[in-house]
Amino acid sequence: MKPVRHPDAPAPGQLLGAHYGECFGCGGLQPHGLHLQARAGEGVSITAEFTVQPAHQGAPGLAHGGVLATALDETLGSLNWLLRTIAVTGRLETDFVRPVPVGTTLHLEAEVTAVAGRKIYSRATGRVGGPDGPVAVRAEALFIEVKVDHFVQHGREEEIQAAMNDPDQVRRARAFEVNP
Ligand SMILES: CCCCC/C=C\C/C=C\C/C=C\C/C=C\CCCC(=O)SCCNC(=O)CCNC(=O)[C@H](O)C(C)(C)COP(=O)(O)OP(=O)(O)OC[C@H]1O[C@@H](n2cnc3c(N)ncnc32)[C@H](O)[C@@H]1OP(=O)(O)O
Q1: Using one digit for the tens of pLDDT, what is the confidence trace for 5-52?
Q2: Whose CA is nearest to atom 15 of ligand 1?
Q3: Angstrom distance (rounded) from CA 167 to CA 157
């Protein structure tokens, strides 16, 4: 089925903010995290930027492939905001097309291509040298919709308690649960 943008989705151009402050991909509280910033796009799409830091190296002066996969995963995960659905990555297939040096800003875009029950199919690209620059990485993913209980059940007790005691975090989690 064609994906449907939720009527209460953030407006195109709106900065989405972190879904969790401690998130390695988007959180502000992780010193070596990616601090990826995502914006709502048109339809069910997202754009995002991430600048490769020295802490993200694999080979000398180059981004680690796993970090680039994280950037793709996080951008794809941000599509949840537009569907107002909580979903986790089930499958992530990544192509590494060109090496990405430290200091490079990766310009990412992602879109949902189809939804089938709890399964959300999506794809993303990361470009270098600007939003219209050459593709350095791309991915196809399958996200699976889950209830907030998924996190409460599986997350370590101390972080879950802290999240449940943080009104902002509870509000962010609830924002997804209104999905019919
Ligand atoms: C107040 C407390 C607040 C706490 C919450 C805080 C914040 C919440 C807000 C937002 C956060 C949301 C997400 C985070 C966003 C971004 C971060 C980036 C994303 C990630 O980094 S997230 C971490 C990595 N991710 C995982 O940690 C998943 C581990 N995993 C599992 O937890 C299970 O595996 C699960 C749940 C995925 C499925 O389990 P399940 O039992 O529910 O469902 P089941 O297995 O039946 O699959 C249903 C249908 O999907 C098909 N299917 C499943 N997996 C497939 C695969 N790999 N390939 C092909 N098909 C697959 C089946 O074949 C079936 O298909 P069919 O229906 O056609 O038969």
Answers
A1: 999 999 999 999 999 999 999 999 999 999 999 999 999 999 999 999
A2: 77
A3: 17
| Residue 172: count of CB within 10 angstroms of its CB | 17
Superfamily of the domain at 37-177: Hotdog Thioesterase (3.10.129.10)
pLDDT of residue 177: 63
The per-residue pLDDT for range 61-78, each reduced to its tens digit, is 999 999 999 999 999 999
**Is the model's pTM score more than 0.80?**
yes
**Which atom of ligand 1 lies nearest, measured to the CA of 117?**
67
ipTM of the complex: 0.95
Q: Which residue has the CA at smallest separation from atom 55 of ligand 1? A: 90
- CA-23 nearest atom, ligand 1: 17
Closest CA to 125 of 115, 113, 116, 134: 134
Q: How many angstroms separate the alpha carbon of residue 24 from the centre of ligand 1?
A: 18
In a mutational test of the pocket of ligand 1, which residue from 144, 148, 164 has the highest number of ligand atoms less than 8 Å from its CB? 144
- What is the rounded CA–CA span in Å between residue 84 and residue 3? 12
